[in-house]
Design a protein that fits this description.
alpha/beta, eight-stranded mixed β-sheet, 18 strands, six-stranded parallel β-sheet, globular, 20% strand
Length: 385
C-alpha cells in the first residue's frame, strides 16, 4: 500500500480552525475505513507538534528576508526541509500557487493537488484582513499571481492529478491545460458522528433567531446582505442575528435598535451545539458572487444539514442541490448583492411549525447517507490510493 503525505500550507494556524478541523475529519474517516497509510502535515509559522494525528511543522522564520523569499519563490523547499519525502510514495498538497521550485517537486514526486477554489477567485478575494482591504497584503498577493501565471502550466502538467471540491473549480482549472483527464471532483464532507443532530428551536412568530457560523471573517460570507435585509424589514418580528467565529465585535452594524447583532466569538463544538438549540434558522454563504464564482461545497452548510437545522444559502452547492430530499428544508437566494428578504424566511419557517424534530432527524440521516466524510474519503482512496 502506498504511503501518502497530505500537506497544507497555513502559516498562521490561529486563523485556520476550519482547515484544521477539515483535515482532522478526513484523517478520522480514513481510519474508520481501515486506511492508515496517510500522514497529514500543516506547515506553519507557530509550532511543531503532533495533535489529533496531525503533524504541525514549524518553518524557520528567524531570517525574515529568507522566509519571505521562500514563501513566494520556493515553497517546495519548506516541504523538502520539513518532511522526509523518502517515506512517501505520493504527495497530496492543498494548492499553494505555483513558483519555480514547484516544477522540480512535481517532476521528482508523484504529486496530487487539492483545489478548494479557482486561482482567479483566490487572488480576486485576496488583500482582505478582518473584512477590510489591506494594501500591503494585496501587493504580496499580486506577486503570487505573477509567479503563478508564469509557472502554473508546467506545474499542472507535471502533477499526477487534481482533486477539486466543486465541478466549477474542476472545469475552470482543467481548461488551463486543455484536458480534464487528471481531474476529479470530491466535495467537502462532514463528520456526522461529531456533528450529531440538534433539535433547533421552532419559530414562534415573534422572535426570529438567525445564526451564521464561520471560522474566518471571509467577506464572501455575505453577512452585510443579510444585515441590509434586516434593516429593510418593517414587520413586527424581533430579530436576533448571532455571528459565530473570528469576527471583531462591531464589524457590522444595525441602525435599528429593535433588532440585535450578537457576536459570540469562536465556540467549541459543545458550545455551538447548545446555541443551535436556540436558533430558528442558519445562514450559509451569501456572497460567493464577490469571488466571481457560482458553486461551492461550504463546510458550514454541511454542518447545518448534519445538525438538522434549516438554512438559507445563495449559491449552487455541489451536493445539496443534487439532494432533492432536502429541498423543503432550505431557502435559496440569488447569488448577487440583492437584499435578503426577511419576510420569505418568516413564511418559510411558519410553514414548518410542529415538525422540527422530524425535520432534524431526517436532515441528519441524509447527511449520513450522502455527506459523511467516509463517503468522500472512499473516493480519495479510489482516485489516489
Amino acid at each position: 500500500m502506498s504511503r501518502i503525505a497530505h500537506i497544507t500550507f497555513h502559516y498562521d494556524i490561529s486563523t485556520a480552525s476550519g482547515v484544521l478541523s477539515n483535515n482532522k475529519a478526513k484523517l478520522v474517516a480514513l481510519h474508520q475505513l481501515g486506511c492508515f497509510n496517510y500522514d497529514f502535515y500543516i506547515i506553519n509559522e507557530l509550532v511543531t507538534k503532533l495533535e489529533a494525528g496531525i503533524n504541525y511543522v514549524k518553518i524557520n522564520s528567524n531570517n525574515l528576508l529568507l522566509s519571505y523569499f521562500t514563501k513566494y519563490f520556493a515553497k517546495s523547499d519548506y516541504i523538502k526541509d520539513l518532511i522526509n519525502l523518502d517515506n512517501y510514495d505520493k504527495l497530496i498538497i492543498r494548492y499553494p500557487l505555483s513558483d519555480r521550485s514547484m516544477i522540480d517537486l512535481v517532476n521528482e514526486n508523484e504529486v496530487y493537488f487539492e483545489l478548494h477554489s479557482t486561482v482567479a477567485a483566490d487572488l480576486k478575494s485576496s488583500g482582505y484582513n478582518n473584512n477590510k482591504f489591506n494594501y500591503a497584503l494585496f501587493a504580496g498577493e499580486k506577486l503570487r499571481k505573477i509567479l503563478d501565471n508564469r509557472y502554473y502550466k508546467k506545474v499542472y502538467l507535471g502533477a499526477k492529478g487534481f482533486v477539486a471540491v466543486t465541478d466549477e473549480i474542476k472545469n475552470i482549472e482543467s481548461r488551463k491545460i486543455g484536458s480534464n483527464s487528471k481531474f476529479t471532483t470530491i466535495s467537502n464532507g462532514i463528520d456526522t458522528q461529531l456533528y450529531n443532530v440538534v433539535n433547533y428551536k421552532e419559530f414562534d412568530g415573534k422572535t426570529l433567531n438567525i445564526l451564521i457560523s464561520s471560522s474566518t471573517d471571509s467577506y464572501w460570507n455575505g453577512i452585510q446582505r443579510l444585515i441590509d435585509g434586516i434593516e429593510k424589514y418593517n414587520g413586527s418580528v424581533h430579530i436576533n442575528f448571532y455571528i459565530v467565529g473570528a469576527y471583531v465585535s462591531n464589524s457590522f452594524y444595525l441602525n435599528s435598535s429593535y433588532h440585535k447583532i450578537i457576536y459570540t466569538g469562536l465556540l467549541n463544538n459543545a458550545q455551538l451545539a447548545e446555541l443551535y438549540k436556540e436558533i430558528n434558522i442558519a445562514v450559509g454563504t451569501l456572497g460567493l458572487y464577490k469571488k466571481g464564482m457560482t458553486e461551492a461545497a461550504a463546510l458550514k452548510v454541511r454542518e447545518y444539514v448534519s445538525r438538522g437545522i434549516p438554512f438559507i444559502k445563495a449559491y449552487y452547492d455541489t451536493d445539496i442541490d443534487n439532494m432533492p430530499e432536502l429541498r423543503d428544508y432550505y431557502l435559496d437566494f440569488p447569488n448577487d448583492d440583492s437584499l435578503i428578504d426577511i419576510n420569505r424566511i418568516i413564511e418559510f419557517l411558519l410553514n414548518m411549525k410542529g415538525k422540527s424534530k422530524d425535520i432534524s432527524n431526517f436532515m441528519h440521516n441524509q447527511a449520513i447517507e450522502r455527506l459523511d466524510w467516509k463517503i468522500k474519503m472512499k473516493k480519495y482512496i479510489d482516485f489516489i490510493g
